[in-house]
Amino acid sequence: MDSSVHKFYPIHGFDSREYLETYLTSKPDMIFGDDSIKFPMEWLHRAFSEGHIKGDLLIDVSAGSFIHHLYTASGYFKQILVLKCSEQCIMELNKWINTRTGAFDWSHVMEYIKCTEENSEQCQDKHMSLKMAITKIMKCDIDNENLTDLEVLPPADCVISTLMLDYISKDQDDYLSNFRKFVKLLKPEGHLILFGLLNTTYMVVGQDKVHMFRYDEKFARKVLTDEGFVIDHCAVQKRTAVSDLTDYEAVIFITAHRE
To answer: What's the mean pLDDT when you consider all of the chain?
Structure first.
């Protein structure tokens, strides 16, 4: 499908709260939980628990204003720095961090990290641990070679990106160019974690149909290996949700490190 008929995230953005309410809420009629929450969080837990991915700094460059993928990560890094290309996303995250009225409720993700087996106080500790780990939320510009423009960030032990490359890339060359910008944030021996949607062309957010770059597992693997990464984990799960809000065929989770 021609991306020109859709909204393009870097230019038009989308309603970040509407995205949360559609794809990540705890509402009974929300059908994307297995794909958008359970699958990445299970694999994140598996990857982090091996003990290889840890350190001082994690940089998150993800689309939207979601943070569920960072709950597990907060136990393995001293600091988390979050980059967002939308002011609305930054405002939404700051609402949650500062426990303001109307902030999105992420308590339902505790089910996916087995917090239901613990008491409510321990669950609250997990929320506070993540809030304390997120030391900065910054605006980034994906059109710049340096995503944070004139501000130079310390190299990260790990960069994690959820769906951002899918939203901001128009074609294969664009994806590769964006990928290279992201990995510039890494230490030479750093780890990379990617979560994306395979063979998709759009996602509906509110009244907008938003462009998604279509790619398959073979392409995702090739980009990593061609750029000098060793793939540690690559998991693909066929789509479980039945909906015309988006046309992805599967979800993919990848962890990799540089040689």
So the answer is: 90
CA dist list (Å): 127 to 45, 97, 152:
16, 9, 29
> Is the pLDDT score of 111 beyond 80?
no
Burial (CB count <10 Å: 0-12, 13-18, 19+), residue 14: buried
Give the number of residues written for the chain: 259
156-162 vs 55-61, strand pairing mode: parallel
Decide if 198 contacts 252 (C-beta within 8 A).
yes
Query: Which amino acid would we find at residue 69?
Result: H
113 closest CA partner among 157, 79, 78, 75: 75
CA distances to 108, 180, 186, 237, 243 from 26, in Å:
6, 35, 34, 21, 17
CA–CA gap between residue 240 and residue 249 (Å, rounded):
9
Locate 53 and state its tokens.
């991915």
Q: What is the pTM of this model?
A: 0.93
